[in-house]
Amino acid sequence: MSDTTRKDTAIRADYPHHAPIQTRWMDNDVYGHVNNVTYYSYFDTAVNRYLIEAGALDIEKSAVIGLVVETSCRYRAPITFPEAVTAGIRVARIGTSSVRYEIGLFREDEDIACAEGHFIHVYVDRATRRPVPLPDALRSALMPLRVSET
Q1: N or C terminus of the chain with fewer C-beta within 10 Å?
Q2: Could you give the angle at the alpha carbon of 35 between the alpha carbons of 30 and 36, nearest 5°?
Q3: Looking at the predicted structure, is the pLDDT value of residue 1 above 50?
Q4: What's the pLDDT at 7?
């Protein structure tokens, strides 16, 4: 069985929120596919766009900001420019001051993830960089994305 059809590979329905991402010419590397580091940019863009649109993050003024303390990605199949990509977003864990986001990237209209990753934000005071409890607005924005821990 290939990696793209393994039972443990996520499908679109595993994610409660979907965000479109358009690949760019510069995303491709010399091997003809999107470079691995760009996947992390897609993850960050999708989650932060969600938080901004949900009113939980003002990138210039929020007193509380999220800092990435852990990240990973499993690559199942390549993405190339000019494919349209959808980022599926879910929240696997909400702690006192941290959140585990999980993201699946889906090519065009495919149902099986071509990449799956996660990152953990620790939310800190913007000025002191010390961990703080999640603000109510952030916690409320995250609840619709919540799934059982994986």
Answers
A1: N
A2: 145
A3: no
A4: 58
Pick from 55, 75, 73: nearest CA to 119: 73
Pairing of strands 84-94, 64-75: unpaired
Check: CB of residue 104 under 8 Å from CB of residue 113.
yes
Phi, psi values for residue 36, rounded to 5°: -55, -40
Q: Give me 50's structure tokens.
A: 């969600």
pLDDT of residue 89 exceeding 90:
yes
Please name which of 46, 72, 69, 43 lies closest in space to residue 57, comparing C-alpha atoms. Answer: 46
Record the tokens describing residue 22, joined without a space. Answer: 């358009």
**Non-local CB neighbours of 91 within 8 Å, separated by 6+ positions:** 99, 100, 101, 102, 142, 145, 146, 147
Contacting residues for 32 by C-beta, under 8 A, at least 6 apart = 80
Distance CA 119, CA 24 (A): 23
Q: How many CA atoms lie within 13 A of 144 on its CB side?
A: 11
